[in-house]
Amino acid sequence: MAGPVTTAYADLATGGVLVADPAQRVAAGLLDDVLAGLVAEQPKGFLGKLFDKTEPARGLYLHGEVGRGKTMLMDLFFAAVPIKQKRRVHFHEFMDEVHAGMATFRKSPKGKDADPVEAVVKPIVRSDLRLLCLDEFHVHDITNAMLLYRLFEKLFAHGVTLVATSNVVPDELYKNGLNRQLFLPFIELLKQHCTVASLHAERDYRRMKFAGQHVYAFGIGPEVRAEMDALWLRITGGVAGAPGVVESIGREIAVPAMAMGAARFGFADLCEKPLGSRDFVRIAHHFDSILIDDVPQMDRTKSDAAKRFILLIDNLYDRGVKLGASFAAPLEHLGKDDRTAFEFQRTISRLDEMQSEEYLAKGLRDAEVVKEEYPHPASP
């Protein structure tokens, strides 16, 4: 019998939201296996709590090229898992949290032999977390490489199941990295606790969404809105979307509409609220496509909004996020504030490139660095 993920996937295909792909159906079945293991997993008994150790349900490491549907399948899986003790986060965001926790611990009074890794794991396991979903698992630097074995050894020992998506097979993680031989035990640990599966879908579905599309509309009024509505339905496969949130530094950013890896905002939602570059990084990591309605001309009365818009476009561009937007004026006339004129020229150049076929055909890039070029008192 089909499980919840396979059923949800079939419903999307039947409704015309996506074109059914055999490789995606297989991956949905593997995610159903993980889900079944989580449901069947017995809660910790007295002895389990006493020793704080249990064997987690077997996880999944799903790898494949960009645009093959990994994020969409993770969406379906996470929504279908019927337990509350679950969390989904981008891999680099998760590791940033780990490093921040370790740094805070090192600054606090502690015993001579205190372990900072154990210190960051404790609050995770105290929350009874059973499922950790990590998007875009990829190891670049030696700091993360040397930490991962100790971190996940403890998480697995405390009963956490891992489901991860990645563009690379486990054996190529941290490829050619410094002292890579010290990283190899983590790869073996990962294979012990996760089924490794490849997603060889036939098409780059992310690229197909934008093929031949005009992604920018200019002017105001119902015709422009209708053009944006049509583009939104094109990239979501006809799904209207629903409100949601993106977690950022302990708070929530409201998303007016999100569906199928895409999000839709008004200009005011992003640039007239106290958001900073770290918030925009979070947004760029959560969605592969973003639509922004009603981008106005920005004169001196909108200096703060213009600065946020510059930061937003920088982060979306660095990540390779696909952008659709409606503008009140042609790009060359958007920036009317002499205080941001120089930086705005870079933004216009990037906006020009972001509507090109070459940019739209590329996959997401791994952007880890956060640049706060316009610190603002209201920004985090």
TrEMBL record:
Keywords: ATP-binding, Nucleotide-binding. InterPro entries: ATPase_AFG1-like (IPR005654), P-loop_NTPase (IPR027417). The keyword Ribonucleoprotein does not apply. This is Cell division protein ZapE. It comes from Devosia psychrophila. Pfam families: AFG1_ATPase. PANTHER family: AFG1-LIKE ATPASE, ATPASE N2B.
